[in-house]
Amino acid sequence: MKKRIIILMIAIICFSSLPISVSARDYTQAEVRAQGLKYLGLFKGVSDTNFDLERAPTRTETLVLFIRMIGEEAAAKNSNWAHPFTDVPKWADAYVGYAYNKGYTVGISDTKFGANDIAEGYTYLTFMLRALSYSDGNGGDFTWNNPYTLASSIGLMTSDVDTNDFRRADAVLVSWNALPLPMNGGNKALAHLLIMGGVFTQEQLDTAIAMVENQTGQETTVDGVRIGKYVCATDSYGYSYNAAEYCPSVTLKDDMSFLIYANTGEGMTTGSGNWHTGATDTGEIAIYLTVNDSNWFEDTNYCFTTTAGSSVLFVEDGSIGITPVYSEFVLN
């Protein structure tokens, strides 16, 4: 009997020392934040519908995510800097070469980057602290393998981040936490610098925040109409509005208000008011805008049409500085 009891106790001790199973974690918060980051162009899954949040990220994945979070992915992808590492996959060569030559990262040896090694929690926290302009050099703000105190004190590492069993979900949570944090020594947030760098717009950031706050992981819709800023892509003559200062736009908000920006004959100007929807004979959605606070718009009412969930609006009625017929506005 004693022998059986001892064996049972050993089994219990061994079982209790095993890591918590992946299924025991709740990935809901990470999922909606991943959708928000994807909308901003800062995070990608293994497919359009799978973020693979339960898997531990590799060192290469965390490096790429860091480069996106500092708004330098385009520069990295277009670079051709060499690196000394022999274990980097071809798709990541440009990223690693860029980061190595910029001094963002080093390898685990002179010839190995550790490309497929699992990234520790401190690895990504260190990357994100660097993105926020904190230093881990001699006499710096923190040490590269112990960023936890600083990360926690500024709100980068929250209680839902598991640094002992770090997974892609945790990288998502840390990334989302970083966006509103002010840069070290400055008053602008990381998100504001990314907006200034053209990575995304303020409207896109507002939409992403709404996606997360609504816990949907999806863009907000009202009566089947997607909320956000629509900019004119082409008019009926095929003219493309490439210059932002001359680009008509309409921003639909979920409180049923809107902003419209167009040339009324007196130069580009803004009007605002309220909007509502209605059905058309063809089954499309009619979007009726009523301008109520601008003296520049000759007409008061304007109409667009769209289909449920579409990212395109078509001007149906109203002279707003573009040719109404077939003019196409695309969700920005």
Question: In brief, what are we looking at here?
Answer:
This protein is of the alpha+beta class. The protein has helices at 2-16, 28-39, 59-69, 73-77, 93-102, 121-131, 148-153, 168-178, 190-196, 202-213; strands at 221-222, 225-226, 228-234, 249-252, 257-263, 268-279, 285-291, 301-306, 312-317, 328-331.
**Biggest pleated-sheet summary:** 8 strands, antiparallel, barrel
How many structural domains in the coordinates?
2
CA-atom Rg in angstroms = 25 Å
Distance between the termini: 72 Å
Shape: elongated
- Secondary-structure element order, as H and E? HHHHHHHHHHEEEEEEEEEE
Low-confidence stretches: 1-23
Mean pLDDT metric:
84
Number of strands: 10
The number of helical elements comes to 10
Structural class: alpha+beta
Percent in strands: 15-25%
Strand order of the largest sheet: 3-4-5-6-7-8-9-10
Helicity range = 25-40%
